[in-house]
Write a structure and sequence with these properties.
about 30% strand, single chain, two-stranded antiparallel ribbon, about 180 residues, alpha+beta
Length: about 180
Amino acid sequence: MKTTFPSPYIVIVCVICLIFVANLAQCNQGGSVDTFQVFAVGKVKKDSGITTIEIYKEYADALLGLDQFSHVIVLYWFHKNDIPEKRSVLRVHPRHNMSNPLTGVFACHSPCRPNLIGLSVCKILSIKGNVIRIDSIDAFNDSPVIDLKSYIPSMDKIQNTIVPKWATRPRLSCPSEIVK
């Protein structure tokens, strides 16, 4: 099945490459490329139907120019899954649907994975100071935000993509995707 999707995967690959390059420099100074630091730059806030991203004040200057974009790519940490059992899950039935085939977590969007990085493309409703109001996000209240990227269609969209049939089915609401 061919369709057009935004490509958050490209963004994740770019972020991982940047982290790798930064850590390669550290490695040359005696550090390791197998471990590195990632820290929160803000938090997701959900209150009474309003969803915002609150960027910590020390990173507020990094928002300059974001108000010129309609969408933002948000990288966040699945903090509620940060336990060894959920980080060790490597295969799931995607979209919480046991009728979907058993699939590796690198081939789907499961929140259970070795590195708990989540990604959502969100519509920007407004930006005031260090607070970005967005339409919605697939993250919990207080999820740590680890990075933001402006959504640029010419860079973040891939034409003529191919996806498995299960990826076109609706997501179920019950979390039965985990295989133990």
